[in-house]
């Protein structure tokens, strides 16, 4: 008989004791001797500390793009197919290699990502071009984020590791504690200058399951009634990195940068498209500044439900190991869908990495800014 989750998954306290040694040896590399991407398996640098981020200038590549995107959309190549995945969010591209795009095409891509929220490239060689070229590709769009607590790729702290296999005790514990693994968020939105474009690619995928879903925060904002829009446009919300860091410490993990909080405008204006987007998410937003606790809780719950339940504002993408997704964290939220059983070998390993570029300090309606 298969062992129960409780037998396999240690308690939080036990997990704290074993997590360090367990996680530090790259989640049992020995299990993956025939795996071609061992170099990308998760590791933890436990020495490199980072100081608090200083303000820096950011210029969005999309600002340099021709609005019609002729170098990306006007290609007369019958092999290139670019199609909308849903009316409001998501575009799929086949027949074009990200690794071969010119700078002019990358500028147009930045604009396309901003407009469509997420752009999914199929049939990519990106995972095989090597860490240096992968990093360079990300750096074109902005300064790379180093995750304060996450596992990374050996020699590349900027590559946030995504790993769900039978030896990821941390995630198994989470799965056993919750009714669902769905958790919409905008990546590390607590940062003072949170991410603009994020790139995610998977190196190993389960046969089925493990999709990712994105929601358009532009469409989510547009659906709201005028009085609610007006109310939200004048408000900021606190986003906090403290729970993530405290949770990591509790599990014996190294925190490489001390956590921060930011008070971001709730309605954010995209610097290139000028579109307004809701900028709150259940992952990191804690309270609305200036409201009473119950008022803040009620409004945030309303918005979280709206974001999480509105499948008519969402796109769900199925992965294969040649897919790369790029999204704009300023105008979308996303969630992993961990619907398969990682303890069953047949259902497989899910492994990849995320390259996250940082953007501007959010700007709201009528110039309402972020408080650091
Ligand atoms: O694994 C996924 O599908 C998404 C994980 C995630 O939230 C991220 O990479 O930012
Ligand atoms: Fe994420």
UniProtKB/TrEMBL annotation:
GO terms for molecular function: 2-oxoglutarate-dependent dioxygenase activity; metal ion binding. InterPro entries: AtsK-like, TauD-like_sf, TauD/TfdA-like. Keywords: Dioxygenase, Iron, Metal-binding, Oxidoreductase. Pfam families: TauD. Residues 82-355 form the TauD/TfdA-like domain. The keyword Oxidoreductase applies. Its cofactor is Fe(2+). GO terms for cellular component: cytoplasm. Belongs to the TfdA dioxygenase family. This is TauD/TfdA-like domain-containing protein.
């Amino acid at each position: 008989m298969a062992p129960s989750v409780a037998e396999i998954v240690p308690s939080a306290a036990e997990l704290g004791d074993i997590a360090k040694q367990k996680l530090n040896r790259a989640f049992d590399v020995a299990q993956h001797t025939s795996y071609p991407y061992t170099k990308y398996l998760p590791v933890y640098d436990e020495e490199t500390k980072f100081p608090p981020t200083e303000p820096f200038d950011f210029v969005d590549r999309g600002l340099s793009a021709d609005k019609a995107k002729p170098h990306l959309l006007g290609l007369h190549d019958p092999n290139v197919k670019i199609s909308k995945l849903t009316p409001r969010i998501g575009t799929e591209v086949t027949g074009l290699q990200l690794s071969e795009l010119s700078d002019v095409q990358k500028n147009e891509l930045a604009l396309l990502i901003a407009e469509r929220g997420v752009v999914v490239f199929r049939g990519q060689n990106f995972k095989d071009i090597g860490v240096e070229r992968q990093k360079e590709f990300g750096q074109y769009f902005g300064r790379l984020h180093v995750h304060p607590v996450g596992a990374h790729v050996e020699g590349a702290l900027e590559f946030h590791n995504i790993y769900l296999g039978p030896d990821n005790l941390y995630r198994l514990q989470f799965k056993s504690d919750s009714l669902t693994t769905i958790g919409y968020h905008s990546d590390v939105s607590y940062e003072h200058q949170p991410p603009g474009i994020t790139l995610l690619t998977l190196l190993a995928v389960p046969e089925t399951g493990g999709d990712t879903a994105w929601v358009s925060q532009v469409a989510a904002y547009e659906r709201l009634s005028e009085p609610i829009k007006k109310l939200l446009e004048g408000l900021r919300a606190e986003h906090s990195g403290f729970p993530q860091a405290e949770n990591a410490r509790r599990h014996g993990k190294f925190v490489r940068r001390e956590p921060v909080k930011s008070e971001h405008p709730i309605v954010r204006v995209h610097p290139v498209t000028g579109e307004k987007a809701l900028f709150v998410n259940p992952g990191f937003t804690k309270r609305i500044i200036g409201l009473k606790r119950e008022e803040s809780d009620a409004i945030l719950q309303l918005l979280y439900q709206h974001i999480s339940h509105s499948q008519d504002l969402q796109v769900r993408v199925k992965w294969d190991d040649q897919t790369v997704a790029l999204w704009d964290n300023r105008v979308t939220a996303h969630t992993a869908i961990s619907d398969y059983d990682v303890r069953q070998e047949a259902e497989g390993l899910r492994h990849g990495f995320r390259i996250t570029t940082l953007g501007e300090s959010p700007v709201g309606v009528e110039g309402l800014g972020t408080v650091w």
